[in-house]
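User: Please predict structures.

Assistant: First:
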Amino acid sequence: MSLLIILVCIILLILLISWGKVNPFLALLLISFTAGLLLGIPANKVTASIQKGFGDTLGSIVLIIALGAMLGKLVAESGAAQKISDVLMRLFGPRNIQWALMITGFILGIPLFYGVGFVLLVPLAFSVVYQYRLPAVYICLPMIASLSVTHGFLPPHPSPVALATQFGASIGLTLVYGIIIAIPTVIIAGPIFAKTVKSITATPLETFRPNDLPPNKLPGTANSFLTALLPVFLLVVTSLTYFVTINNSIIKNALSFLSDATIVMLISLIVATFSLGVSMGKSIKEIMSFYGESLKDITLILLIIGAAGALKQVLADSGISKEIAQMMQHLHIAPLILGWLIAAFIRICVGSATVAGLTAAGIIAPLITQAHVNPSLMVLSIGAGSLVCSHVNDSGFWMFKEYFNLSMKETFRSWTLMETLVAIIGLVGVLILDLFV
């Protein structure tokens, strides 16, 4: 019965937005209340559940998205985005720009959290899209596929690390196996699949449209790249301390503080204010007006992401993930496939890749020793399953939709199918690797 309620609520949500033209933020809130009551959450606790989901989701990313939008706006207004796109085009040409962005997304996606990588790299890709009038979804999807794969498969991302710890798997070996599987997965779900969505017409957020300035007014190449990618460099450097033992508590605490994504973004924005703003002849007042405009453009996006988090929390609080896990635990299926299926089913119903992965891990853990399953491969199998079929109960779905300014149908056609391809190809890769290790 619970599964039927979830299915009806998801269909109703899609109809409200696509057919009824209801604002996605309001539609998500209405469905969150409806789903909570129908799934048996006490009426006096539904609101608390929605508030918790809204707050938890925005609490972790709102500052990153806001600061990222400000940085992206300044990069666009200063001409740095124009300079970066010119250099990329000279180096790779229009025919290879997809591959360049995909490789960039893969390399930078290993140390960066998905949300941070999305907020930093997508605006840079938009600068190429706008300046050379290229199809936005077609050009950017391979890079986003790279970010998704590294998020789901590779340590040091939180979910793979948590799964590896729970299964007693080697993090280093999991990373090696993950890269082996990730490379073909990204190529198929990225440039190859992107050819099927080339006809989708998208108009990305206006905030990231670069200024068309004369060459003598553009910042230098080094200044443009170093400033735009400073958050990436800082996060890479600080993430390396994860592998170093530091006994001095003061240094350890300082590095922990500096490695926080919000602090990194704030430092980067301060640097950009001077390197791309003041040093280029712009007044502080003019720079602050850019920042204000950027926040206006992302306000609705933040509300929609928060509302998606509210729906996800309601579904999690209803206990549906445990119900699904118990239902599937008794299926006589190979453990690697069963782990993928449990994670996939929970992901589709609840929307959270982390909840799906960790719930599936709790169910599958006893089978690993009984069935002599390679724990690193189980981490990757569950990680792949937790990415499948991202849709309206996932905040990533809405971030992609709103940044690219797509319809529901176009988002399903591009984002949801790409995520599903990543999940299926990842499972196939795990099963093939299982034959040799």
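Second:
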Amino acid sequence: METTSRVGADGAPSADTAEGVPATRRTVDGYLKAPFPWYGLDEAFTGRRWLMHVTAAADDTVQHGSTGHGEEPVVRADAGAEKARFAVVVTVGSSPVRDSDDGTGVLDATTVSSAAWLAGSGLLDCTWPPQMDHTLRGEWLNQQTETAFELADDLGRAPWSTLSLPVDGVPVDFHYRESEFGWVLAGSAPDGVHIGAYGRGMSAYGLGFAVIGDIASYDES
């Protein structure tokens, strides 16, 4: 798994998310710098599409990012906060084992586990368990994100199952799991890019993924 994904990871807990406010979206500029194609839901999805976050390395090389579909989820401690119907697609560029930016170590290659971790932590970041105040949520989030990391490192066993979904029309096997907070899946596109996704209120079973032809169209939503 990409070891640095746990720090500043797209979709992971960050200062960009405030109570009752959608996570801050970035402009399309960061997406345009990526050396890999971005993935989103295919044309069968006719709802709203929106940009989320892009994460880059110290040398400004884009590593991964997310695109949203449906209603933007908000983090809010009330009964209506988790009714948003959405699916977020995480695109992780293929990267081999390489030296760290500071030259002090080696970074693991990105894998399907990288996408699974980012998707799992992303789902948690837009979840607020009932009857939990702001202070307790921070502790809960730390515990749950550690669990999500451990789950992403062992995709071959329960609670993961296999779900076949089309990627640019080609059937691809994804690792899939459900929880009380929503669902998470992860797999690899035929071109080697890793795809993660998470959502709530929208069934994962009917989804399909495709390369985004014009990422700027998401910025206009």
